[in-house]
Amino acid sequence: MIILIAILTLSFIAGSFGLILGYAAIRFKVEGNPIVDQIDAVLPQTQCGQCGYPGCRPYAEAIANGEAPINQCPPGGQPTIVALADLLDTEVLELNDEHGEHNEVPMVAVIDEDTCIGCTLCIQACPVDAILGAAKHMHTVIADECTGCELCLPPCPVDCIDMVPVKQTLDDWKWSPPEIKAGQIDAS
Q1: Do 56 and 44 contact (CB within 8 A), yes or no?
Q2: Which regions of the chain does DSSP assign to beta strands (E)?
Q3: What backbone torsions phi and psi does residue 141 show, to the nearest 5 degrees?
Q4: Which single residue of 4, 10, 53, 137 has CA 20 to 30 Å from 118?
Q5: Torsion of CA 118, 123, 124, 125, to 10 degrees
Q6: Average pLDDT, integer, range 44-53
Q7: How confident is the model at residue 6 (pLDDT cuts 50, 70, 90)?
Q8: Distance separating alpha carbons of residues 136 and 34, to the nearest angstrom
Q9: 94 plus 112 within the same structural domain
Q10: pLDDT for res 63
């Protein structure tokens, strides 16, 4: 009988706290800034930090607050800048070279495992945890996770990391449209 009373008492207390927490979640809900969400949706979500912010969301917040210009995202390149300018109704700026350059061909890091000394500096520098390895053992890059931000290159003391173009497969291949020069089309 005592055990039944204890179980019922604990169930009542747990239910009461659940109701209080549910009410508090609805009553004190913090609404996010919708423009920040829209800006964040336009950014490429590489979380590389090349813009000077720790990720795409903090950069979106800085843009929305007027603390950062729209031209600091090398992975997004000019298309992202144009989309941000259109969204925010501002002028289109050129990509700020101070933060890096945009590569039309996606790049991925590759570690030369024969020369890698296992210092783990590249692992610490990678913002998306695309490098796998342990101290004093060779490291490797998870190609599907690598965003090509090149942040792993400067800390490597033996220069065993190279950036190579992503191999094109049937999944990401796109047919390039034919170039039509003036005078090639017959107007008749």
Answers
A1: yes
A2: 107-111, 131-132, 140-141, 161-165
A3: -105, 135
A4: 53
A5: 120
A6: 86
A7: very high
A8: 46
A9: no
A10: 94
Report the 10 Å Cβ neighbour count for 82.
15
Q: Please check the confidence at residue 158 and state whether its pLDDT lies above 80.
A: yes
- Kindly give the interhelix angle for 34-42 and 56-64, rounded to the nearest 10 degrees: 130
- 163-173: burial string, b at 16+ Cβ within 10 Å, e else: eeeeeeeeeee
Least-confidence region, from 45-54, 61-70, 84-93? 45-54
In a domain, 9, yes or no: no
Q: How many structural domains compose the chain?
A: 2
Residue 80, domain extent: 34-99
pLDDT at residue 141 greater than cutoff 90: yes
Residue 173 has pLDDT above 80, yes or no: no
Q: Tell me the two tokens of residue 113.
A: 């495992």
Whether 11 is covered by a domain: the verdict is: no
Which positions ≥6 away from 42 have C-beta within 8 Å?
Answer: 76, 80, 83, 84, 87
Same domain, 71 and 126: no
Rounded to an integer, the average pLDDT of 116-140 is 90
